[in-house]
């Protein structure tokens, strides 16, 4: 029975069989063809037998192994590699079917490769998970054909693996590299001109072309007989808190990723850059009640705490309580901090309901309210309207778009910093704001 489960006929065999049946039908009209048909039938049976023997004479004709990271990155392309070894004495053609996690909803992951004798072939492909959690990979199925190609043998390798999908640490590493090199503009990161000298003094160093003449240290210049300048660095140990709304407004998906996951990925990037700049990073999550409170620190292991915390966050389905958030911030955060609030407002009325609590927070902290542009509405607004129904829909979309912009103006009116951004630009725009605040010395 094991042999039967592993044996499959190929399309070449079916075509050959169909041709033989056609020849037998013609033999009813032309009896001389019966002899030819019998010979061809015997040849086909012999070839199938030889093909089967060549494939089944060993139990270890091929070997396959899946290679992937210990954890995957949510919302990013993750590399998966399948290593395929040919132990046969002849080249083989292999169709590989990898059993992917159900969360990906992919059923067409089939790879057809040719592997020479005694060699190893690497199959590399990418997956993009859009939900955090544990993903279970199943077996690797390899369907092997010899050069004759009449039958196939199925090998199944029980490569069952469970891999957690964490917030996008791949994106975190990309922005970490660019935030500290000259490649800032590649992902939209901007250099902001420093206003005044609110930064901390670092050292006195020789003048280099391009330095601001206002920072020349004339006393050091006189002593060294060469131009010397004062060097400044960003102020350190400034607390940066990400306040993540987990209410129902953050459940909305864009490009298969929920707004909560966009906020979580941006939080991880911002926290990592803040820690690299010697600031302290903390997190508060809330919905109808306050969830997790992680105090701002800058210890070596703090980033791992942040990653583990963000991994377990889930959207709740009640309206978020900003009054509880205000009470928690006033109780838990004693020093002036940068508060980056990730939430979403669809109407001006919804924003005005929470405005009193945000205004109170702004008395004690520098607050940046980040909410999302509806990119589906933007697509509708950019498309031409040709029918009455399309004009009606476009008018409604313009109303919602106008309200989003009004929310920004309303926040600015009361001295609050607001950022309206498309979901896919959230990380870049949030990081730009943080770097701007650092350069302007607002903290």
TrEMBL record:
Entries under InterPro entries matching the protein: DUF58
Keyword terms, alphabetized: Membrane, Transmembrane, Transmembrane helix
Keyword Transmembrane helix: yes
Name of this chain's protein: DUF58 domain-containing protein
Transmembrane segments annotated in the record for this chain: 12-30, 36-56
Pfam families: DUF58 (PF01882)
Statement: the UniProt record of this protein carries the keyword S-adenosyl-L-methionine: no
Domain DUF58: 203-348
Protein species of origin: Adhaeribacter arboris
